[in-house]
Amino acid sequence: MNKTSPESIVPGLNSPSPVSSYNEWGLLEEVIVGRIENACMAPDQASVRAVVPDAVIPELSRGSGKPMPEGLITKANEELSEFIRILEGEGVTVKRPDIYDHTRLFKTPDWESTGLCSACPRDGFLVIGDEIIETPMAWRSRYHEGLPYRSLFRDYFNQGARWTSAPKPALLDSLYKQDFVAPAEHDTESPMDYVINDSEVVFDAADFIRCGKDIFCHLSNVTNRSGIQWLQRHLGDQYRIHVIDTSLWRKPMHIDASFVPLRPGLVLINPDDIDVDKLPAFTKQWDFIIAPRPNKSSGTAYSYLNMCSDWLSANVLSLDENRVIVEAQQTTLMDSLKAHGLEVIPCAFEHFSPFGGAFHCATLDIRRQGQLESYFDV
Ligand code: NVA
Residue 98 is part of which domain span? Predict the structure, then answer.
């Protein structure tokens, strides 16, 4: 009979994981903050036109795949430094990906593309419990976006984290509807449609929002039904994934400025994307803050490159059930949050928007206090 000798036991089985996060509001202890060095404009592809604001499309074709202006990177880096200073001042450990050159052309056997950036770790990596899941993103420019994070993830793995990559998609032409015409942003007259079909498993992590055992997601131009199905099957029956309707928004990509839980029992809703009457009935156990319209920002010399809508205002980051980081110009939203007893921490972040997000996008929770719990009676 074979006996297991201690040296034959694979290390790490019982190590406590340095990665642990089940929701969007537990006390934040450690976070990855993205980088913008060597960032590129998104290549002009159908999957990109399907989501960027209508006003940016002319710039998308002019700037396709070109490096982002150095002046913008400098300004946005000043904002990132202040954001990191705030996080560290509030007791959060901040980790950064490696500096990586996204301007290089790369090829698969089927296509070639330049990269994008490492600004938004929220998009490509999903932390659920003690596991980091690399997600199969639908934009070709993001195919290798995991590489600048490898040394961090390797380190978390060495300390005991689980680390998974979903099946790598081929991102063939056949994934994208070739005759797709992107509707105007909120053109609710035209039938809802998405640029991708279900021929491969694709999803972005930022299309999923964690509330313990209940995870909310939506169909978008980067997340298809097969992607949602893969994740549900991977996570197993400890978790329930709910697909919510964001079809008021005709260019959907990423749910984290649409449905933003702030603490158990309270969620911020973007009324331009979500009709609350269409939310699953059980969510009504919670209170909704209907987000006020974003304050018109003062604008920057680089606003013409902004790939996101003004609703980045709702892309806030909770440090715990009370403290939330909000863009400095969004004073109307701050007032709504304060009226619900939240403490607001303002941070200027307008130059960061052209890189694809705000505070939630620019971060990836590595560790928040708390365990897996159920917050809804489903
Ligand atoms: N792409 C979305 C933001 C997602 C955080 C928007 O432009 O509103």
Answer: 17-368
